Amino acid sequence: MTHCILIGAPVDSGQQRPGCLMGPAAYRVARLMDTLAALGHSVEDRGDLSPIEVEQQAHPNPAVLHLGETLAWTRALKAAGEAASAEGLPIFMGGDHSLSLGSVAGVAAHARRLGRPLFVLWLDAHSDIHTPVTTESGNLHGTPLAYLAGRPGFDDFPPFPAPVPEENICLFGIRSVDPAEHAALEQSEITINDMRVLDEYGFAVPMRAFLDKVRTAGGMLHVSLDVDFLDPSIAPAVGTTVPGGATFREAHLVCELIHESGLMTSLDLVELNPFLDDRGRTAKMMVDLVGSLMGRKVFDRPTRSG
Fold it and tell me: For the chain, which ranges sit under pLDDT 70?
């Protein structure tokens, strides 16, 4: 069984709709610890991080928002992620997706120390491959993929430890890409399984193909699960809803396949905004998916009363 280390990351600086800072508390209320423990895993909750040394910082792109705060979160999350990776499987409870600027940096530093390649699976409606230079919205939750891939434009950020080769990155479930991101992806080696691909081939075939690639390379796998990977009809508590996402069954299939591979070494849970939720529905859904990622099968689920 696995030693799961929960790291609360109440990050709200990467976007403009307040509420994601309540995400870690919502996961605890939705009994994430109990779910993991019931599957036989040991669980350690390290509480919520706080950003340190927050400084006001301007950027040449005047659209960029909350740069100083996001940089402080990146440093704090990198340190916490690197330390936790040496002791177990870190689960970063967010918080908006800018937390991945730090979480992936931490696990990348650990992978480099072990001499193993890091792979990243991005379960998301968006590609998040802007840089602080190219973003028009100024929302830094749209930049972590570019940062971890070592793309230019992050001069204010700590140098990313061992950037992840683009061929080791898989975008899965994307369906909202703006023109600048589209142009960047066309020039990249990133595996793109958008919803058109998944509609044509199903979820299992592309997922198994990527997992086989990780296994063949002896790689470590970081999974970044954004609430908006799911269809908003089943997961409304996100500020970036995009119709046409994964259904309950499709999402659980993805998570079960990841578990069966035995490859996942770290996990982000991002963009949960409890303020937008319906009686904790989305938080419970996300905890249910973590259960599948950590070994629970569909047929293990009890029938719920109406």
Answer: 298-306
